[in-house]
Amino acid sequence: MSEEALPFSEVYVPDKDRYLEYYRKSIEDIERFWDERARELIWIKTWDQVLDRSNPPFYRWFKGGYTNINLNALDKWIGTSTANKVAYYWEGEPGDRRVISYYDLYVEVNRFAWALRELVGVKEGDAVTIYLPMIPELPVSMLAVTRLGGIHSVVFSGFSSSALADRIVDARARVLITADGFYRRGRVIELKKAADEAVKLAEDRGVRVEKVVVVRRAGVDVNMVEGRDYWYHDLVNEAPVKAYVKPVPRKSDDVLFILYTSGTTGRPKGIMHSVGGYMTYVYNVFKWNWDPRSDDVFWCAADIGWITGHTYIVYGPLMHGETQVMYEGAPDYPQPDRIWSMIERYSVTVFYTSPTLLRLLLRYGDKWIEKHDLSSIRILGTVGEPINPEVWRWYYKKIGGGRAPIVDTWWQTETGAAMISPAPGLSLVPLKPGSATYPLPGIVADILTPDGRKAEPGEKGLLVIKEPWPGMLMGIWGDPDRYIKTYWAMFSRPGDGVWIYYPADYAVRDEDGYFWLLGRADEVLNVAGHRLGTIELEDAIVSHPAVSEAAVVGAPDPIKGEVPVAFVVLKTGYEPSERLEEEIKEEVRKLIGPIAVPSRILFVSKLPKTRSGKIMRRIMIALLHGKPVGDVTTLEDPSAVDEVRSAIEEFKKLMKE
Ligand code: WTA
User: What is the pLDDT of residues 290-321, one digit of tens each?
Assistant: First the structure.
C-alpha cells in the first residue's frame, strides 16, 4: 500500500496537504460549507435553512428553497456561447451519428415537455417511467419530465418486461416512455414488445399505464394501441417550433427522480433523490472529480439506466456545459477497439468507466489500443467495483500514457455522486493503485468494526458516513421503514441522537489514511458493476415449477468481478439435467433480465442450513473461494457441506476446460 511516484502532466501536481487542508475546513461546519456551495447554482428562491435535522434520518436539504434542475442544466446556457457548443456527440452501434448542441437540446426538451403536458397530460408530481436505450431521447425525456416538475423513474433497457412491470407498479406510473427497439451486437432488441408485456402485467396488478410514448430508433414493426400509444416524433412535431415551457418551480426537498436498486429482499428499492440536494451535490462533485474545462470532451461509458449515467451523463456534465460522447451499443462491437477508436475520433479528454469494462478490453490485447492516438486524455476514472492494482496500472500506462491521474470513485445509487475519490479539480493527492484515496469535501467517512468500534489502520471494517450530505437519498419510495432499517439501523443510536449511514461496504484505511474499498458486506452481488440481490435471484429461480429451494452466491470471475452461481434443490419427481439448467436460467432472464442469469446452476439434494432453517451462504462462499468453511456446529446436517463441496469441485473443473 505504498505511494508510487506517478508523474502527471504539470497540470496535476499532487499535493496532499493542500487537499487535506481544504477538506478539514469543509467539515468544520458542513452546513456553512454546503450553503456556500449551493450558492454557485441558480435557484428560484433561496433556502431558509441549509439542513433540516428535525426528523432524522429523513434529513432535508435547503429547506424553503425552490428551483428546477433545468435552469442549471439547460436554460442557463441559452444566450451564452455554450448554446452553440456540442452537448452530445452521439454514436449508434451501427455507426450512425448525431451531433446535438446545447441549443438543440433546449429546443427538443421544450417541445417534448410541451407535448407531454398538452397531449399526454403529465403534471407536477407525476411519476413517469422511462425505458429507453442509450439514445439522445433518453436525456431529453428526463429533462422534459423534470422541467414539468414530474418525477422520472428510468428503468435500464436490459431489464425484462417483468422487472419493468414491478417498477411501474411500485412507482404507480401512468406514463411510460420507450422505443421500438435498439441495436446490441448487431441485433435489434425489440423494446416495445417488452414494454407492451410489462404494461399488461402492471394492469393485472391494478396499475394502468394510460399513455405510452414510443421513440422510433430501430425501425422495426411495433403494435401501436390507438388512444394509448403515441410516436415520440409525432408529439414533438405537434409542439410549436419555438415552444417554451417554463420550468416548474419545485421545492428543494421534492423528489427529483426515483431509481430502483437491488437490496437484500426480493423487492427492489425505489431510491428517491431530492431536487435541491442532488443538484448541489452533483454540481460540486463533478467539478472536483473532473476539473471541467471549456474544451473538454467528456465520456462516461455507462448506461443512463444506472445512477452513474444519471449523474455523469445527464445532470453533472450538462450543469457544467460539457461536450460529451454518448454511445448506444456494445463496447467491443464490431471490433474490440470500438471504445479506443471513439476516444480518438472525438478527442476525448476525460474518460470514465468500470473495472469490468477495462478487464474485458485488457484481455483483447494491446494491439487494439496501439492503433489509436489517445493523447487527448487528461483524466481517467473508474466506478462500480474495486479496481485491481494490475488493471489500474495498465489503465494508467496504456490508456492514459502515464499522464492522466486515475480518479477511482466510490459511491452508490443512494449517495447521488462520488463520496470517496481523488479530486483533481481541487487538489490531486498522490495516488495509490486500487485506493479511492480520501473522502470528498463535506463527507465525514469512517470505518467501524461490527461492534461499533473505530477500526485501526489496516483493520478491515465497515464503511460509514457520519454526517448528512446533500446528495443523500431522501428515502425509499413508499417504504420509510425499510429506509431506516437498511441504511441507519446498523450503527445509529437514536436515543443519543447519533445517526450513522451504513452503505454495507467493507473497507480498510491504511497508515496514510487512504481508503480501500473491499466489496459488499450484505447479501448483494456486484456483477460487472451491477448490484443484484441474492434473494431477488432466488425468488426468480424458485418460481420455476421444478425447483424446491435455491441459494445464490457470488463466484469470483476474472472479468465481471463476480458472477451468480445457484445451488438448487429440485422437487421430488424431477431429475437434474442440462435442459433443466437452461430452463431455470431462462426463468431468471424472463423475470429479471440477461444481466442476472447465473453462470451455473449446481444441483444438490440439500442446502447447508442452520437448525433454525437459515441457509448458510457463508459456507458456500468459502467453498467457492477455496477457503476453510469455519464453524459448522450450528449446521442441521453436516453432510450438506460435502455435497456442496463436490458440486463446486465439479463446477471448477468445468470452468477450467
Ligand atoms: C460498489 C454505482 C469499490 C460498492 C455508483 C457500492 C465500488 C456499490 C466503487 C454501489 C469503487 C462502487 N470501488 N467498490 N470505486 N464504486 N462500488 O448503487 O459496493 O450501482 O456499494 O452505484 O458498488 O453500486 P451502485
Answer: 999 999 999 999 999 999 999 999 999 999 99
Residue 421 falls inside a structural domain: no
Predicted confidence (pLDDT) per residue in 419-429, tens digit:
999 999 999 99
Whether 620 and 539 share a structural domain = yes
* Residue 483's CATH number: 2.30.38.10
Pairing of strands 475-476, 515-520: unpaired
Are residues 95 and 216 both part of a single domain? yes
385 Cα: distance to centroid of ligand 1 (angstroms): 5
Is residue 41 domain-shared with residue 110, that is, in the same domain? yes
Q: Pick from 470, 491, 520: which residue ends a domain?
A: 520
Q: Tell the burial category of 407 from Cβ atoms under 10 Å away from its Cβ (0-12, 13-18, 19+).
A: buried
**What does the pLDDT read at residue 652?**
82
Which residues of the chain, if any, have pLDDT below 50?
1-2, 5
Domain with 608 in it: what CATH number?
3.30.300.30
Ligand 1 atom with minimal separation from the 387 CA: 13
What per-residue confidence (pLDDT) applies to 5?
47
562 CB under 6 A from ligand 1? no
Grid coordinates standing for 156?
Answer: 435500464
Full-prediction pTM beyond 0.85? yes
- Considering the domain architecture, whether residues 124 and 265 belong to the same structural domain is answered as yes
Number of domains in the chain: 3
Residue nearest to atom 14 of ligand 1 (CA): 385
Looking at the structure, tell me whether residues 450 and 488 fall in a common domain: yes
Chosen domain end from 393, 415, 437: 415
Contact 161, 210 (CB under 8 A): no
The answer on 489 and 608 residing in a single domain is: no
* 262 close to ligand 1 (CB < 6 Angstrom): no
**What is residue 264's predicted lDDT score, i.e. its pLDDT?**
82
Beta bridge partners of residue 437, listed in sequence order: 515
**Are residues 43 and 255 in contact, defined by beta-carbon separation less than 8 angstroms?**
no
**In sequence order, which residues have a C-beta less than 8 Å from that of residue 164 and are 6 or more positions away?**
129, 131, 155, 194, 195, 198
Whether the CB of 384 sits within 6 Å of ligand 1: yes
Beta partners for residue 189, in sequence order? 182
C-alpha cell at 73: 442544466
